[in-house]
Specification:
This protein has 511 residues and is an alpha+beta fold. The protein folds into two domains: 245 residues, D-Maltodextrin-Binding Protein, domain 2 (3-Layer(aba) Sandwich); 206 residues, Dipeptide-binding Protein, domain 3. A hairpin with a 2-residue loop joins strand 7 and strand 8. The longest helix has 18 residues. The chain starts with 10 loop residues before the first strand and ends with a strand.
């Protein structure tokens, strides 16, 4: 799944022939971009998500892949594909990372991309995991126009993993001269990147639009204009694709999914996501809260009929008992808890809640409201009542980072691709509401160790403790069911665990 062998000396991780295999020939191979592709998204977006420095969450990735490009990003067949960095080196002590930049890359305003832009991008970064990453850096250097170097204070074996989705957006490069000229606020209103599409407009909760960038280094996009419509009501999303108003609609579940299966005029596509739906109880760290008792948390897990939740709201995705993605070499696999409401009631009684208890506010975000309602109903059946609160994705993430969900329960679709990133997201930094001292001690040792065997053992022990404590409740994997008209050619979901169309420059239409 992900490469685990690390450098024993300065090792170049790149082969030119492989780059050509992954990316094909550059500009000039494609004909002039044509047509307009329209699709519906199932959640609202924040203006911050169009600026890599304030982004990094999985839900901002459609914007990143459309308007921007990264040193390294996931592409078809390669999680760690060389993009703006055509190669990189890692020192034997894992303290120095050097990136050889691709020449000839242009930003949408015509400025060339150089190491100064990369250095500026790192210095400016405030997004996901910023404090942790920047706090480890000793020095940033633009060695020459096409060589960028990062020196860390201590070994940082997992640094390359932070270029993956759901880990950070620190490697998505922004234009230094342009931002210094217009300022941060103006940049968020009119972002400039070096991705396959130029920013055209963003109307909050309505749409965002891009136009093909003819000088994109990898290839000229096939489609001239991309229009992403934000439509949170799935009946409306289905109607729009059914009527041909859009070429495809994302996230169709429940009754609409049943309709879609019988609709011969549309194609049914399913893209798996790296998101695993976990339930997190922030007040478990408060000894006065019912959620502080592991028997209560286990009861809440046993009360869930995961198969029904999956079949109704996320058909085709896995039922999970673990945090790590299937196949992660450092992940530990646990079977899902069975649906056992009787045992759940017994555990609640043993914990001192024979008549149940009120579990506080339960937050689900756009696209998961029906999912959250099902969870709340299964809990209600065993005596756990919650106040369901449905909020926008950007709003919930902002509330969580500001520690405003301290006494809440929330359904959290964690999206990092490696187990280290998934643990980082939950138990360190802006989103952390704990953790337990024994876990923190193991986590600190993991981050300081450069012994691969010791690190694997430590991260495995952390996962086992989390499982034993029922620190989070894994429910199901996630995926996006999509309805497409015949106008959409092929499958737009070509990158593993990317539920959004990617690479968007490869998308094609039947004209």
């Amino acid at each position: 799944m992900r490469p685990k062998s690390k450098a024993l000396s300065f090792v170049i991780i790149f082969v030119a022939a492989l780059a050509m295999l992954h990316f094909g020939s550059a500009r000039g191979a494609s004909s002039e971009p044509r047509g307009v592709c329209k699709l519906t998204m199932h959640y609202g977006a924040s203006a911050d998500w169009f600026d890599p420095s304030t982004s990094g969450t999985p839900r901002s990735m459609p914007m990143m892949y459309l308007f921007h490009d990264a040193l390294i990003k996931s592409m078809p067949g390669n999680w760690y594909a060389p993009c703006l960095a055509e190669s990189w080196k890692i020192s034997p002590d894992y303290k120095i990372y050097e990136f050889k930049l691709r020449k000839g890359v242009k930003f949408h305003n015509g400025d060339p991309m150089t190491a100064e832009d990369v250095l500026f991008t790192f210095q400016r970064y405030k997004g996901l995991n910023a404090k942790m990453i920047l706090g480890r850096i000793e020095k940033l250097e633009a060695v020459d126009p096409y060589l960028f170097r990062v020196t860390f204070k201590e070994p940082f074996l997992d640094f390359i993993d932070y270029f993956l989705r759901g880990m950070s957006s620190i490697g998505w490069v922004v234009p230094k001269k342009y931002i210094e000229r217009v300022g941060d606020a103006a940049y968020r209103r009119q972002p400039v990147g070096c991705g396959p599409y130029k920013f055209v407009e963003f109307s909050p909760n309505v749409k965002f639009v891009g136009e093909a960038f003819a000088d994109y280094w990898r290839k000229v996009p096939n489609v001239k204009r991309m229009e992403y419509y934000i439509v949170q009501d799935q009946s409306a999303r289905y109607a729009m694709v059914k009527n041909g108003e859009v070429d495809f609609s994302l996230q169709l579940t429940d009754i609409i999914y049943e309709k879609l299966k019988k609709d011969t005029s549309l194609r049914l596509l399913t893209s798996l996501s790296a998101n695993y739906n976990l339930i997190h109880m922030t007040s478990q760290y408060d000894p006065k809260s019912p959620w502080s008792d592991p028997r209560v948390r286990k009861a809440a897990s046993l009360a869930l009929d995961r198969k029904t939740i999956r079949d109704v709201d996320r058909p085709g995705v896995p039922i999970i008992g673990s945090i790590a993605l299937d196949g992660d070499p450092d992940g530990v696999s646990f079977p899902p808890d069975p649906y056992d409401p009787e045992r759940a009631r017994k555990l609640l009684a043993e914990a001192g809640y024979p008549k149940g208890f009120h579990g506080g506010k339960f937050y689900a975000e756009s696209g998961f409201w029906n999912y959250g309602d099902m969870v709340a109903n299964f809990w209600k059946a065993v005596g756990i009542s919650v106040e369901s609160v449905n909020v926008e994705s950007a709003t919930r993430l902002s509330m969580r980072a500001a520690k405003k969900l301290k006494d809440a329960v929330f359904l959290d679709p964690t999206g990092a691709t490696t187990i280290a990133g998934r643990l980082e997201y939950f138990w360190e930094g802006a989103f952390c509401y704990g953790p337990y001292p024994d876990i923190q001690d193991l986590w600190d040792k993991y981050n300081k160790s450069i012994d691969p065997k010791a690190r694997k053992d430590l991260v495995g022990r952390i996962q086992r403790i989390i499982h034993e404590k029922t620190m989070v409740i894994p429910v199901t994997g996630s995926g996006v069911i999509t309805a497409a008209t015949p106008r959409l050619k092929g499958d737009p979901f070509k990158v593993e665990y990317c539920w959004w169309p990617a690479p968007v420059e490869d998308l094609e239409l039947n004209e």
